[in-house]
Design goal:
By secondary structure, the protein is mainly α. The chain has one domain. The chain is about 75% helix and about 0% strand. It is built from eight helices and no strands. The protein has helices at about 1-40, 40-50, 55, 60-75, 90-125, 135-155, 155-165, 190-210. It is elongated, with a radius of gyration of 21 Å. The two termini are about 30 Å apart.
Length: about 220
């Protein structure tokens, strides 16, 4: 009886540990997708021509790119200091909004680094075992982005607005082009592309997780 209880307790502990492993790797996959998308600047560089931002904003491509690069650099984890656009003015409300956005990106990037290191430790410690819990990572990796993808497909503009209303406690994200012309070079279509890329990357990571779940 004692051996049975010990064996049963061990299996339960193993399942709990496996579930925690799955969640840690899932966090890594999702945050990594966001970090990679943040750094895929070529998407925006292509959009400068594709979305005709030069005509929309009245700025030449070099100026548009310089101001975009300044914004991306500001949102990187290691960047410290105030946001300064090379050629564009910025209102106080915009400055506050961008600072709030940076806090979110800093949190995501920190979570990516931490969960990535923990994931490596988990994979090393389980190298001689079947990683069945990776299948849970893959299933959740399909489910969570799947729901978000459905909402995006159902209505991107509504999703975009609802997202900002939920994440931010103010309406500083509603820019006035006269005071903050940066909004003219940040079209909604670009953010839609970023959202799709994040979903695709998470799906790829989920497929790889399921594929590796039965391997030692």
């Amino acid at each position: 009886m004692a051996n049975w209880r010990k064996h049963g307790t061990g299996r339960k502990t193993g399942k709990i540990a496996g579930l925690l492993y799955a969640l840690v790797v899932l966090i890594f996959l999702m945050t990594l997708a966001v970090v990679l998308t943040l750094n895929f600047r070529w998407i925006y560089y292509r959009d400068i021509t594709w979305m005709k931002l030069e005509e929309v904003s009245g700025m030449n491509p070099q100026v548009i790119r310089a101001n975009y690069d300044a914004l991306i650099d500001y949102n990187l984890l290691w960047h410290r200091g105030a946001l300064v656009f090379p050629t564009l003015p910025m209102s106080e409300s915009a400055r506050i909004h961008f600072a709030e956005v940076k806090q979110i990106f800093d949190g995501i990037q920190a979570a990516c680094v931490i969960s990535g290191l923990v994931s490596v430790c988990i994979l090393i410690s389980t190298r001689r075992k079947r990683r069945w819990w990776l299948k849970i990572t893959g299933i959740l990796g399909f489910a969570v982005p799947g729901v978000l993808g459905f909402l995006v497909a159902a209505g991107w503009e509504r999703f975009f607005v609802t997202f900002h209303e939920m994440v931010f406690s103010n309406d500083y994200w509603l820019f006035d082009p006269a005071a903050d012309p940066v909004i003219l070079i940040l079209p909604d279509g670009y953010f839609l592309q970023c959202a799709v890329l994040i979903l695709v990357l998470v799906f790829i990571g989920s497929l790889l997780s399921i594929n590796a779940s039965g391997k030692r």
